[in-house]
Write a structure and sequence with these properties.
It contains six helices and five strands; from the N terminus they run βααβααβααββ. By secondary structure, the protein is α/β, with parallel strands linked by helices. The protein has a single domain, classed as 3-Layer(aba) Sandwich (Rossmann fold), CATH 3.40.50.1010. Strands 3-2-1-4-5 form a five-stranded parallel sheet. Helix 5 packs across helix 6. The protein is globular, with a radius of gyration of 14 Å. The two termini are 26 Å apart. The mean pLDDT is 95.
């Protein structure tokens, strides 16, 4: 299965926390670790100087999925639907969520509450310990 890692998981990985073991287990099980172009931008924006090479190695070992028109449409649909219920979702979170959704994958995140879309397969990967 395609497992899309969001920024919380990627940061956890870069800092040598529990995500490292989970990503290795993904590979061992035959699942495919990926991320989105949006997550790459989020990570690069917050990189500590000493993390640059590690981040480059991390991204070279992942499939980096683009946000295509179908994902963008779904993200906009989710934002509109939730806004009608009084719930504000971030554009970047909706685009990140829509990318595994259109690619029949799951999203691994440390913040599952940011992804309330019922159609989306969300896996909670606790981070920061």
């Amino acid at each position: 299965m395609l497992q899309v890692l969001d920024s919380t998981v990627l940061i956890d990985f870069l800092r040598g926390r529990p995500a490292v073991g989970r990503v290795l287990a993904l590979r061992a099980s035959g699942d495919v670790p990926a991320t989105t172009a949006i997550n790459v931008e989020e990570i690069v924006r917050g990189l500590r100087p000493a993390e640059t090479q590690a981040a480059q190695r991390l991204f070279s070992g992942l499939i980096v999925l683009p946000v295509d028109a179908r994902a963008a449409w779904q993200a906009g649909t989710w934002r509109r639907t939730f806004a009608a219920r009084g719930v504000t979702l971030y554009q970047s979170d909706c685009l990140v969520a829509a990318t595994p959704w259109v690619n029949d994958g799951a999203l691994a995140t440390g913040n599952p509450k940011d992804f309330p879309m019922r159609q989306l397969k969300v896996e909670h990967w606790p981070v920061g310990k």
